[in-house]
Design a protein that fits this description.
single chain; TIM Barrel; 48% helix
Length: 265
């Protein structure tokens, strides 16, 4: 299970203030905490600074990679900001994201074709957000055809079925789970990813909802998630689910985490 730490996002007020003030210490502290908690990638997002994103996203990349030895998830719809971020990134980044939207796709394809990367593809048609599993699977099929025709390796593609709040539509959780199952059945060579916490937006007990949904999604075939790795209960649920799905040989990772006290509290 690939873990992308979500905390360095300027939509969070403390992070936005830190980026505005070029507070390297706070940003680096968040990066270290997430890496220590088990993040494989650190997400960096400066999207609230629309006019300055081309300047700020590469600043975040350099700042974070000074502090941790993790590759980053470069999170932006702006191809120019991504180009600037890729230029200073060490190693192979995640790029989040591309979609079937014509202008966005045409602007992104040259970038992702020219640079080694893992790529998040959003399972949405040009008309807007999907509501059913079938719409998500159809969008995934179009994306895979488009991106592989452009030369991308299917093993580097991560399809995002777009988790939406169940508080808005109670069917959205099940639709995503069914979409993950369908994508993996039709396209076993590609991967699946989601932004986990969207599912609980607008509800109480958000952490409880996120933990349950993560386990269900992993059982459906989810292979990566953008989440808060410093949520010890969430990470405990993740490790336990990996164990129960038979993906932790000899239970060694679970036992190691227990011995390190990672399940306490």
């Amino acid at each position: 299970m690939l873990i992308v730490g979500e905390l360095i996002n300027t939509s969070r007020s403390a992070v936005g203030k830190a980026v505005q003030e070029r507070n390297r210490a706070l940003i680096q502290s968040l990066a270290v905490r997430q890496a220590d908690a088990g993040a494989d990638y650190i997400d960096v997002n400066a999207g609230t600074f629309v006019e300055k994103e081309v300047e700020l996203l590469p600043w975040l990349v350099e700042t974070v990679q000074e502090a941790v030895d993790r590759p980053l998830c470069l999170d932006s719809p702006n191809p120019k900001a991504l180009e600037a971020a890729v230029a200073v990134h060490r190693g192979v980044p995640f790029i989040n994201s591309i979609s079937l939207e014509k202008e966005r796709c045409e602007a992104m394809l040259p970038l992702v074709s020219a640079h080694p990367c893992k790529l998040v593809g959003l399972c949405m048609k040009r008309a807007g957000m999907p509501t059913t599993a079938e719409e998500r699977i159809e969008a995934a099929a179009e994306l895979i055809e488009l991106l592989t025709a452009a030369g991308l390796n299917p093993a580097d593609l991560y399809l995002d079925p777009l988790v939406q709040p169940v508080s808005v539509d109670i069917r959205m959780g099940r639709a995503v789970l069914e979409a993950i199952i369908g994508i993996k059945a039709r396209f076993p060579e590609v991967h699946t990813i989601c932004g986990l916490s969207n599912v609980s937006f607008g509800l109480p007990e958000r952490k409880r909802i996120n933990r349950c949904f993560l386990s269900l999604a992993m059982h459906s075939g989810l292979e990566a998630a953008i989440l808060d790795p410093t949520d010890r209960g969430l990470m405990a649920a993740l490790r336990t689910t990996v164990l129960l799905l038979g993906q932790d040989e000899y239970c060694s990772d679970f036992i190691e985490a227990y011995e390190k006290g990672l399940f306490a509290g």
